[in-house]
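[Automated response] Your request has been received and processed.

Submitted sequence:
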Amino acid sequence: MSSDTRRITVRIPVKMVNELESIVDKSDYSNISEVIRAALDSFIDTMNAPEYISQITVKLPKKKVDEIESLVTEGDSISVDDAIRNAVREYVRDRIKEYKKEIIED
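Generated structure:
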């Protein structure tokens, strides 16, 4: 971590502290501060996204995440985000083609 930091104090419910401690126990994070910094980084990235970009959060079953990660490992995608973006793009493209086809047939 950079030495250019500033301490802040935040009060949060005990239940949330317990959940954060559980995350630390189950993850690669060393402490609650790291978890909070990661969450704040994500929040700031979302809030500072350019106007032409909308970000969404998708919850997927662990098995599907593993499958997507294997695509990245095998070199089919450069990142999990890229794999998901490509899948959504293809899905939307196919749906638009189907929609246009339906309009022409009607």
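Summary generated for your ticket: The CA atoms of residues 87 and 93 lie 10 Å apart. Residues 10-53 form one domain.
If you did not submit this request, please reply to this message.
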